[in-house]
Amino acid sequence: MNLLKSSSSLIATLLSGLLCTIPAYSENAAPWQLDKPLAFTEVNEQLQRNYAHAKDEIRQNLGPIIFCTNDSVSLLKGKDKTTVPFITPRSTGLKEIAHITLGSYILLTNHTDEILTAEKIERLQAFKTGIEKAAPDLQNNEGLEPRDDSRQEELIKKTISFLSNVINAKRVSHTDLQKYVRSCAVPDLENAYEAAGSQITTIDDAVAIWHKQMTPEEWSNLHVIILISHMPRQRLLSFQYFSKLLNQPQEGKQIIVSEGPSNDEQAIDLLLTHILDGKVALDFFRDPWRMHRDLLSDGAQKYLQEHKLQGNQISK
Question: Is the peptide bond preceding residue 232 cis, with omega within 30 degrees of 0?
Fold first, then answer.
């Protein structure tokens, strides 16, 4: 076991040098960097080109790909792409009404326990007026179902009453603001549950149709790329759905979650990197997830355990 660990550590050290691109020279680079490249710079550049070529070879055998954004799912099968929006009028309406409590909180959270300025009172009044103006059209224009109505009416009534009290008093304590939002948390989360169900049902209906159009081999070779913003990321709705569908407990293999790519080609390139690095990880380290962890991570952990840091030393 110790020999295996030692070998893996050595391989990781070698790979970290090969797979990392040599940094570009800068004005502040060391003199030896400016004078000439390292002996293996050209070899490493060949590696980068060959790495890209290996990804191109993998791409030739890719199966179908599902792209999931914050509002739609798309199936890319060969050169054909089909897109289905999953943001329904009902899910949008439920979130919009839940947002009135968030909007009230955002207006006041930085100004509790103080006299509110005229500008802040004006903002509160405008927000309250907007809610009052929209409320009569709740049942007709928000795509809601009859079972949603009482919960929305409760949130609207509670919010208008709270805002009226704050405007009249020209102040609100942190305790009262917290009491208001916590009293709205349960109906807000019930709205979130219903909105989530609406979106998941729409996604699942689309995927069910696509599944029927695939051969068993195509389905087994399916990859999903979920394109997201940084927040939220944890327990993302779309990941939870595809995780259950494909029995993938974590992202990084059949499901890729990324903040980076801005188009399909960049997303596919990321997928190819995951596939190729997965092969490297398994064949070098017997661990398909090893390349998801920085190759320098074990060395960094050991070094930090053995050395004091100068950065936190207090000068005298």
Answer: yes
